[in-house]
Recover the amino acids of this structure.
């Protein structure tokens, strides 16, 4: 009889312990594997045209649109808005450092280009605020194409030549000729 009572108490203790731990696990906050991604915010970039200086004059224009994934925490010292900083960084890379060689666009390293932009912006912001750089458009429009379109009787919408193969400009990224 004692064995039967002790067995009953043992079963009750195990049942209570398992119910207790089940309730604890069910009410515990779930760890989200994408928590870092949710802590990031999408910052849309603007379409920027950057002149290409060639033989003492303008040879064409880089047309680029770059957006960012930025951490939710903002820099403590407010400075210029991100779009102006990004535009300045693009001018530095594309005009000052000559990152893109138009004669050899097949050698263009998109990953290094993104890393350079991220590094430059994070240095200017004073921390690791930019998590990812998204290149939405990176193209080139020559001065000859622009001149031919200006002298044409009917102006047409020009699409920049993509620098990175497989990267077509977004549907709304057509440059309209000046009237």
């Amino acid at each position: 009889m004692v064995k039967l009572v002790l067995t009953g108490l043992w079963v009750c203790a195990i049942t209570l312990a398992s119910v207790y731990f089940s309730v604890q696990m069910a009410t515990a906050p779930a760890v989200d594997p994408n928590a870092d991604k949710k802590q990031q915010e999408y910052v849309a970039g603007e379409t920027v045209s950057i002149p290409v200086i060639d033989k003492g004059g303008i040879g064409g224009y880089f047309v680029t649109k770059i957006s960012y994934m930025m951490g939710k925490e903002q820099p403590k010292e407010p400075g210029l808005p991100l779009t102006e900083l990004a535009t300045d960084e693009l001018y530095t890379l594309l005009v000052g450092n000559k990152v893109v060689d138009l004669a050899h666009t097949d050698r263009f390293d998109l990953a290094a280009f993104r890393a350079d932009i991220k590094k430059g912006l994070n240095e200017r912001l004073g921390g690791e605020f930019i998590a990812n750089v998204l290149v939405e458009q990176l193209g080139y429009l020559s001065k000859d194409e622009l001149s031919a379109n200006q002298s044409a009787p009917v102006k047409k919408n020009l699409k920049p030549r993509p620098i990175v193969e497989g990267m077509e400009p977004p549907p709304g990224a057509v440059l309209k000729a000046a009237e």
